[in-house]
Design goal:
Structural class: alpha+beta
Distance between the termini: 39 Å
Largest sheet: 9 strands, mixed
């Protein structure tokens, strides 16, 4: 059996994948120590399957420890060793305003204060060493650091190409601060562009001690109960062992959303949609990802919390719109929803745990989309009176009826999520009307049809396991090692042999680190025209034909920018290689045997559509053909089918079309 466990803002989901199918477990997320909620969800899944911990072969975990620490500024006390004259690079950044028309908006403060920045007396150039590292001077400078330093980032000029000096610095740090974690740039993000490499290494150093403590705690609890040591989902969509993840905290910043993106790509393929948008709406936020040719899109770098990370990461855009998003009225009198969330505790007002403010979940309950008589996953009972009181207070301020205010809250949340879909599609030259919308998470299927309608998308896919699809994605994710090398080749220097040598060298390292045979090797080439500042990523063979690479790049450039330049010299900047062990195959998520069957009688209830109440059919995940208005009750989530939509369900997924 394989266990996948995903930590969300409100619930922690566990999926147990075995020979008899899928069994799920849910528990409230425990923000103070996520491992407590993880183990509670695991116990529920094991109990539901009648399985023992010894039956579990792998435990794969997606977490938000690093993400939360980075966003909240709760990082380890970190020092930086950089080449003399370049110690302030994190603070200087790219000198670009974060928002063009908000002059008061600033960048986040540097993680490393001035007092913990250590200049390294050395210098390398593109061809190698220019000035040897002065070990004695470096040691004396390291001795001046505070005793509370927990971690040290090492980033030297040209360290990605000539890492010798960085290794010497790391040894010196280990002698001076034997308890401190050390992150070197060539090992963390071995790419060119000095600022991005340094910023990534600093984040890595700042997060790794926290990740190590958390994963050690989780590993101890898992092993004590007879479970295997956990593996961890990386931001790239692959899985690594806990030791590797703990050593590189920056690699896990998007650990949570990555599992959902991988699962959305698989669900899209299984329902015949090679192009899709994944919409993962949970209790706190909504993560949107793009699926192209059956695979989740991966970017070579992005910002998280205003900090640059030059790492392969699933291309996920996140907005603060979830079931627990709090509705409020801004200074101009407009209704808003989020980004502030009621979270797991106290949660929405209808949870009956002390919440007083109206949330998106309260609105969905009052509009009839959720069943007040059926507890949510995790055993949470819904209190419609508490929801009505919370939404009613907001309605009185807006001079609206309670139903109108609730519908307004849902529309505002839908608009926020529709804009997030535009960011990963329209703003990148992708037409969303040609894509399916794969909706999952506890709240995603509730809102999917309206979001699709706003974008002209005619097809919505809701896997039967929508409520725990991110955890399911973890269970079927491949063990992978992502490696990178900036090569900076141009023109005739881009030969089949030169490129293949780099790919084979990186692949050999990946196989060695994975410790497995029969691995798959995928290569990606970041190319640009000479004189351009940024690259486009092109997937290719391990021994690519330079002519084919050029053609593929010209096509991609035309698709992205509307033109190609046949006379321009081509530059190969970076080679990225993913070495992976084949993952388990699984359907979109088969509905449990006790789910309603097509031939069972179904009830109906009133639900609010288009400004009035409708009698709405209640269906199960094996309902066969269906027509809106209808509500399909899936394990752990609910799909709302508005009037004008119709589709079918086969027990693995519900597909509806406009």
């Amino acid at each position: 059996m394989v266990l996948g466990v995903d930590v969300g803002g409100t619930f922690t989901d566990a999926v147990l994948l075995g020979p008899d199918g899928v069994v799920t477990g849910k528990a409230p997320t425990t923000p103070d120590d996520q491992s407590e909620g993880v183990m509670a969800a695991v116990r529920e899944a094991l109990q539901g399957a009648g399985a023992r911990p010894a039956d579990v072969r792998r435990l794969v975990h997606g977490m938000t420890v690093g993400t939360n620490a980075l966003l909240e500024g709760r990082t380890a006390h970190t020092a930086l060793v950089a080449t003399e004259g370049f110690t302030d690079l994190e603070e200087l950044g790219r000198q670009a305003r974060p928002q063009l028309y908000r002059l008061c908006a600033g960048h986040p403060p540097p993680i490393v204060p001035v007092s913990r920045r250590v200049p390294a007396p050395e210098r390398c150039g593109p061809q190698g060493e220019l000035r040897p590292l002065d070990q004695e001077v470096l040691r004396s400078r390291l001795e001046g650091l505070d005793a509370d330093v927990e971690s040290v980032a090492v980033c030297l000029l040209w360290g990605f190409r000539h890492p010798g000096h960085e290794r010497q610095v790391a040894n010196a740090v280990a002698e001076a601060l034997p308890e401190a974690h050390v992150s070197t740039s060539h090992d963390t993000a071995g790419v060119f562009r000095e600022y991005e490499r340094l910023a990534t290494t600093v984040v890595d150093a700042a997060l790794s001690p926290l990740l190590r403590r958390y994963l050690e705690r989780l590993t101890a609890r898992a092993v004590a109960e007879g479970l295997p040591a956990p593996e961890v989902m990386l931001s790239s969509g692959g899985v690594a062992d806990a030791v590797t993840a703990a050593a590189h905290g920056s690699w896990t910043v998007l650990s949570g959303p990555a599992g959902g993106a991988v699962a959305a790509a698989r669900a899209a393929r299984l329902t015949g949609a090679e192009g899709a948008v994944g919409l993962d709406m949970g209790g706190t936020s909504c993560d949107v990802s793009l699926v192209e040719e059956g695979r989740v899109a991966v970017t070579s770098g992005r910002e998280v919390g205003g900090r640059s990370l030059a790492l392969p990461m699933v291309d996920v855009h996140t907005v603060g719109a979830g079931g627990g998003s709090i509705a409020w009225i801004d200074a101009g009198g407009a209704l808003r929803a989020g980004p502030r969330s009621a979270g797991a505790s106290p949660g929405p007002a209808c949870y009956g745990r002390g919440g007083r403010e109206a949330t998106v979940t309260d609105a969905n309950l009052l509009l009839g989309y959720l069943d007040a008589g059926a507890p949510l996953a995790g055993g949470v009972s819904l209190d419609p009176d508490a929801a009505e009181q919370a939404v009613g207070a907001l309605a009185r301020q807006l001079a609206l009826s309670t139903e109108e205010a609730a519908a307004g809250i849902v529309r505002v949340a839908d608009a926020e999520m529709a804009q997030a879909v535009r960011v990963v599609t329209v703003e990148r030259g992708v037409d969303p009307r040609e894509l399916a919308l794969v909706a999952f998470g506890g709240a995603g299927p509730l809102h999917a049809a309206w979001i699709a309608d706003a974008l002209g998308m005619g097809r919505v896919v809701a896997p039967a396991a929508s409520g725990v699809l991110s955890a399911l994605g973890l269970a079927v994710s491949e063990r992978r090692r992502d490696l990178v090398e900036s090569v900076l080749l141009a023109g005739d220097a881009i030969t089949r042999r030169a490129v293949a040598d780099v790919v084979h060298r990186l692949a050999a390292r990946g196989r060695e680190e994975l410790g497995g045979s029969g691995s798959q090797v995928r290569a990606t080439y970041e190319l640009r025209y000479a004189g351009q500042a940024f690259e486009l990523a092109i997937d290719g063979e391990a021994e690519p034909d330079p002519v084919e690479l050029r053609r593929a790049f010209d096509r991609a450039h035309t698709e992205r920018y509307g033109y190609e330049d046949p006379g321009a010299e081509l530059e190969l900047v970076t080679v990225r290689v993913a070495v992976a062990l084949r993952a388990a195959e699984l359907g979109a998520g088969v509905a449990p045997d006790d789910s309603p069957r097509e031939d069972e009688p179904h009830e109906s209830r009133r639900a609010w559509f288009d400004g009035r109440w409708h009698d709405t059919s209640l269906l199960g995940p094996r309902a066969g053909r269906l027509r809106g208005p209808a509500i399909v009750e899936l394990p752990g989530s609910t799909l709302v089918v508005p009037p004008g939509w119709s589709g079918h369900s086969d027990g693995e997924a519900v597909v509806i079309e406009r």
